[in-house]
Amino acid sequence: MSQKIIHLIAAARPNFMKIAPLFHALNDLDWTDVRIIHTGQHYDYNMSGAFFDELGLPSPHYHLEVGSGSHAEQTGGVMIAYEKVCVDARPDCVVVVGDVNSTVACAMVATKLWIPCVHLEAGLRSGDRSMPEEINRLATDAIADLLWTPSPDADENLAHEGTDPKRVERVGNIMIDSIELLREQIEGTALPESVGNDAPYALVTLHRPSNVDEKEPLQRLVNELNQVAKKIRLVFVAHPRTMARLKSFDLLDTLSSSGDQIVLLEPAPYITFMRLVMGSAMIITDSGGLQEESTYLGIPCLTLRPNTERPITITEGTNSLVTPETLLAEVDGVLDGSRKKPTSPPDLWDGKTAYRAAESLKRFLGA
Ligand code: UD1
Question: Is the pTM of the predicted complex or chain greater than 0.90?
Fold first, then answer.
């Protein structure tokens, strides 16, 4: 039997922990020839290379080096570069993950060349088309041939949009696989020295354009975080986008007015970051992935967004949507124990998603 060439598209930080378990599951099989395509949307070592090293991923087979830019520049740049790769050495299947610009770009290239395309983490919807990721999700799910969903709400969203159920297969949440693959290393890693082991802390991450790109909302959030820091120490792991805005809006001094109560850190590689997650008393974030990781780990999560594409983290998990106005009261609720308690993780968030995806791919490709 000839081997099937499978492209796994890796672009930005939240993609790497989704392709790693799938790479390992597929790479072990005799019918696959798995190749990693890095589009270069994230390129700093601590946003990309460190994740490859820690997740045991090989160097990418192709590096498109697209870098930063406007949405059209990034999406168009990836399409032009990736089309050349596919025309030169046509794969049998392309797997795109998540909702970043490279996801929709590579799905467009593959489907227009009639190369079977699979979307991992399909069906998530925030209902908010002002988020670039929502556009990427809608467009990718409209064209990909096979849609791997993480949860029943994703299946329902696709059904509601009229998607043929034959295109949809629920495989579970692959990010949980990465946690389980590396759990021992994560638990055996020390917290960064500046965090120490003494007082409890809340882990903070922010990077959504709506929270950080304009001065007024970011200033508001920084002021609220200073209030929260009077109740619990904050470990703020700042995305490059956020760090650049904190500097250009002169907000770093306002943050440091809380002294040792706010520890500001650079983006951390996967193992250190997950150690920070596991050691935290609560999470304050606008990230998509952290809403799921905190639900799986049973850690309270306060999400600074008006909506979420991951509602199961609210209905079955530890997540709540908060605003700058309600943040402080919600933090109090976590600290005094009056908040809802975690239940068991959602169905199929069990560390075995990559195995189910590999089985599904074998059937799909008739391998
Ligand atoms: C992207 C994704 C978002 C995801 C996030 C996780 C899209 C539309 N957005 O947003 O869904 O949640 O990644 O991080 O695809 N930068 C660096 N070094 C890097 C990468 C970026 O300094 O390695 C800087 C860029 O120059 C830019 C900023 O960070 O100023 C934002 O990067 P970009 O990739 O445009 O979007 P993200 O905000 O990271």
Answer: yes
